[in-house]
Amino acid sequence: MAHFSGEDEVMLQAMLRQLFQSVKEKITGAPSLECAEEILLHLEETDENFHNYEFVKYLRQHICNSLGSMIEEEMEKWTSDQNQDEESGYDTVVQHVTKRIQESKEYKEMMHSLKNIMMVVVESMINKFEEDEMRSQERQKKIQKEKSNSYCTDNCSDSDSSFNQSYKFCQGKLQLILDQLDPGQPKGVRYEALQTLCSAPPSDVLNCENWTTLCEKLIACLSDPDPVFSDRILKFYAQTFTLSPLHMTKEIYTSLAKYLKLHFLSRENHIPTLSTGVDTSNPNVICLLKKVRLLNEYQKEAPSFWIRHPEKYMEEIVENTLSLLSVKHDQSHLVTQKILDPIYFFALVDTKAVWFKKWMHASYSRTTVLRLLEKKYKSLITTAVQQCVQYFELCEAMKAGEILGHSKHCGSKQKTFYYSGQELQYIYFIHSLCLLGRLLIYTQGRRLFPIKLKNRKDLVSLTDLLVLFTQLIYYSPSCPKMTSAAHLDNYSPASMVTEVLRILCDQKECAMECLYNNTVIEALLQPIHNLMKGTKGAPNCSETALIHIADILARIASVEEGLTLLLYGENMNSSEEKSPTGAHIIAQFSKKLLDEDISIFSGSEMLPVVKGAFISVCRQIYGTCEGLQVLIPYCLHESIAKAWKKTSLLSERIPTPVKGLDSVSSVNQESQNIMAWEENLLDDLLNFAATPKGLLFLQRTGAINECVTFMFNRYAKKLQISRHKKFGYGVLVTQVASTAAGAIALQSSGFINALITELWANLECGRDDVRVTHPRSTPVDPIDRSCQKSFLGLVNLLPYPAVYLVGNQDLPNKAEYSLREVPTCVIDIIDRLIILNSEAKIRSLFNYEQSHIFGLRLLSVVCCDLDTLLLLEAQYQVSEVLLNAQEENILETSESHRNFIIDGLSVERNHVLVRINFIGGPMERILPPRVLEKGDDPYPWPMFSSYPLPDCYLSEVTRNADLKQDNDLGKLLLCFKMSDKQTEWIENCRRQFCKMMKAKPDIISGSTLLELLEKFVLHLSENLSECYFPSVEYTATDANVKNESLSSVQQLGIKMTVRYGKFLNLLKDSAENDLTLILKHCERFLKQQQAPVKSSLLCLQGTYAGHDWFVSSLFMIMLGDKEKTLRFLQQFSRLLTSAFLWLPRLHISRYLATDTLESGIHPVYFCSTHYIEMLLKVEVPLVFSAFHMSGFAPSQICLQWITQCFWNYLDWIEICHYIATCVFLGPDYQVYICIAIFKHLQQDILQHTQTQDLQVFLKEEALHGFRVSDYFEYMEILEQNYRTVVLRDMRNVRVQST
């Protein structure tokens, strides 16, 4: 300090000025003082001239003079110390020396000296600040002067931050400014005072004691006719909003809001009226709009940070805002002379009420807003509703031709600076609409209704408001054709209302309270009623309005509660005669559109879009089981297929474009429109496949191949399945794969090919884009996560119909396989992954063990379908291949002792061999685990490589132990000897059966069950009212059928049945011949009732494709008695139950409609499983949702269960109870038992949905713990609720053609 002279001070000031002048732009561009300080601290990194600044050179020289010798000494010392060690890096030397210097006494003295010097310099600069400014004002222009002030202010603030100095806006200075701002002062003085105020930090101004007085002065300045004054004040306000914390900006916001409120209430201010409109080129209007816009911008920004401050600040802002918006002028004069309220100007600057949307988003502010609206400012809501009502009345009163002038607010390409009264009313209407739409989303907002309006007797309820919104869609004027699309979408009345309704639809609770009632639905459907009935005097509903209505209806139909309302109305259980529900009206209208029965739209360019929109609504309905049931009478599948075929022909006839750009573009546009419409129709047809019965209808149209190809193309492009579908293609694929025609369509479309190619890439090849430096991790799970999706996809695609397609093909079994040879079909997968019976196949796999385990797991799941197992066994001898593989896995330690090598493959093969060779329910067989146990014996289960299999895999259960008859059973048998009226007798038997099933179900088994079934079916077959099929005379003897042959699948099925029957002590060794004769008799008996069918489906060529599991089960129930079994089957074949328990009964039967026959779909699929899905959605909704989330259909697994009579899934006694229950109580109990099973499995299903292996669980796992008798009471409730519908449809299988 002693050597610091006045000249040094002047020199340093010049250096600092040069530095700040150079970085002025960077500092002034900083959003805050903290950012400006950061810029200066990192200047060396960002400024290439940093080392050329004189101030930087001065600092460097000062450091060198003070610490230079010390730095050199430290470096020499460090170097000498390190001579004997390894050579240190340069960075290490620098770090060490820097640390030593910073800890030294000399460094601290230098920093203290430098800081004192700089404090003197900065203080001197601050003292000269005002003097320098006064001089510069005389030489520079106003704009340059403002920039200089801002620059100096920032520099001073920065100095304050750097050197712990502060420059405060002193009270005396503020008082001087207050005096100078007085309206009596000359204009120049007031302006200079304003400039000084704006150059000061806003925080200093707001913290002054005289802030309240200053606020009054600022409000007075805002009213000054000179726009310069108000602009400068607004700039000060804006600067405050940007740089100050909430408690300061709240003061500014409040003052501005209060000023505007006083401004609008004052009669001296010339506020525009509704009749004169708003001219935005008028200076007064511009000034007012700037103030409103500034307030509105802050409204939109405040919610992002006010939660960090006390609630009172937010409440004050909200209350001042609502108070301002609630301002109303005296309405005693004419409406046309009405002075515009503040809300009109807010609507001008924020038409869609974005500020309100942001305030309502968070509960923090929403609670306050709604409380104040309810207690003090409900008039704001009332006027918003009033505005919507007035706009509707205006639309209603004016005819279409007269409304054109009013509709110019919809959009115009010509830029205008003037808003007429009508346009202002419309803008206010849009603002009100958006505000109300946002309000209705929230429960507390809906509680503000009903609303009382002036000049209206009745209160406006929520329903009234929603009906009003709905009517606005088709009553409001259409926009002119020249309107730009973007503008039309943003601000046309119908679009705005539709957007509000969409948001309400997406909020379930809100939609249920507001939209899901008959009144609103009727309002939505009113224009459709008018169009179909040709009502005179009804408003002309445009195509655009119809598209908007269809959009809302589709959203309603996509939600369960909305769909129920459309299907049944609000009082679905009411027996009163009512008008058709929404679903019926929509279906009728859609059908008329498709058949082009509505002349009003003929020739319209928008007609295909209207059609597509309403079919989309229907698609939401018929994509569900209950919805399809309601829409069946309208045969929409036929109308859509007819329209598709017509469009398909049109697309083929598109003319070849000729030379000339116009013709080419027009033809291209036409072809694109036709192709888009064709795809839309295919998509609509495809969605019939979402339900079993819908799939039957789809196959009847003959378009299933095209639909599946279309689905595959969308799947390949990774496109969404549908706008309102929550999950992907899994359910559709599963449904389609469950039928023969669907399996063929999937194969021909390339779907299976693509899935297998993708699987092979994941299993064997890996991804092409993965670098060699990052090899794939070794899989830990038997099926790697990368292959899990493909595995589940194959499981979905390979039920029996799909496997049957390849059943007659031989395996390639090539001598050599190329490593680049990729499988493309199911037979390739069997050849390359499952039946690895040659060294060539093993060598062709990169990951032999992993890939073979994948194949064995797939085989295990697929073979759970016993028909598939028999087919693979008959065609490829799967068991023999696996046994041979186990034989090769033996380690011979001596001639008498052979040990199996236990590895992943041998354990997996052992599991599969036990699964496919032993039949039994959960308590009857034991499947070996697939994992090793801890301890000395990791796998205690015996392996084998030849027959017979070890008995340890069969449970030691009580086999065929007939219980003694008790009194209840005696009553049950006694009722067969009574000679009451037939109907009473049948009902009495059924009651006794139900009583026994609930009390002592185990009694109903063995010979007792045999006697019960025999006598009951005999009585039913003699009662014509109980017979569904006509009697068929059958006289063939054993000698007549002895020489007939059975399929290899049937022969293997007979062996399997006898093996199971002997295990249960039900059959003897001679049973195999008897069962063979029974099946031959059945084939001849049923052949008498079959009809010739023209079909390319392999499953319809000849006899039933699978094994007859019902006859096998019945043979075991009859304890191997051939005569009793045949007699029972002839009697039973007359009953309706036989159609659903005995699947071969209706194989190409003449009792089925021709189109049903040709589809190859069994009534069990399109009737039983259809109702299983329908009831599952109502009774066990979580399970139904789990299926959809897993991409799996309940119908596929139920069809498998029913086809094989629950073999391997239930114990024998439960299988008997299943058959007896359906025989005694009716075929609809087949549906109820499946629902009971899903209810029983609910927790397991939810768990396996989470682990993403639901399909595998349902197919592989037996139904542990399920007993038919445990759910008898539940099934009786299901019968009471659903029998009328289910049984009626089951009785209609003979006349199913629609």
TrEMBL record:
Pfam families: BROMI, BROMI_C, BROMI_N. The keyword tRNA-binding does not apply. Residues 173-844 form the BROMI middle region domain. GO terms for cellular component: cilium; cytoplasm. Gene3D superfamilies: Ypt/Rab-GAP domain of gyp1p, domain 3 (1.10.472.80). InterPro entries: BROMI_C, BROMI_M, BROMI_N, PHAF1/BROMI, Rab-GAP_TBC_sf. Keywords: Cell projection, Cilium, Cytoplasm, Developmental protein. GO terms for biological process: non-motile cilium assembly. Residues 862-1293 form the BROMI C-terminal Rab TBC-like domain. SUPFAM superfamilies: Ypt/Rab-GAP domain of gyp1p. Residues 12-138 form the BROMI N-terminal domain. It comes from the Eukaryota. Transmembrane segments: none annotated. Required for high-level Shh responses in the developing neural tube. Together with CDK20, controls the structure of the primary cilium by coordinating assembly of the ciliary membrane and axoneme, allowing GLI2 to be properly activated in response to Shh signaling. Interacts with CDK20, which promotes CDK20 stability and function. Interacts with FAM149B1; may play a role in cilium assembly. This is Protein broad-minded. It comes from Neovison vison. The lineage of its organism: Eukaryota, Metazoa, Chordata, Craniata, Vertebrata.
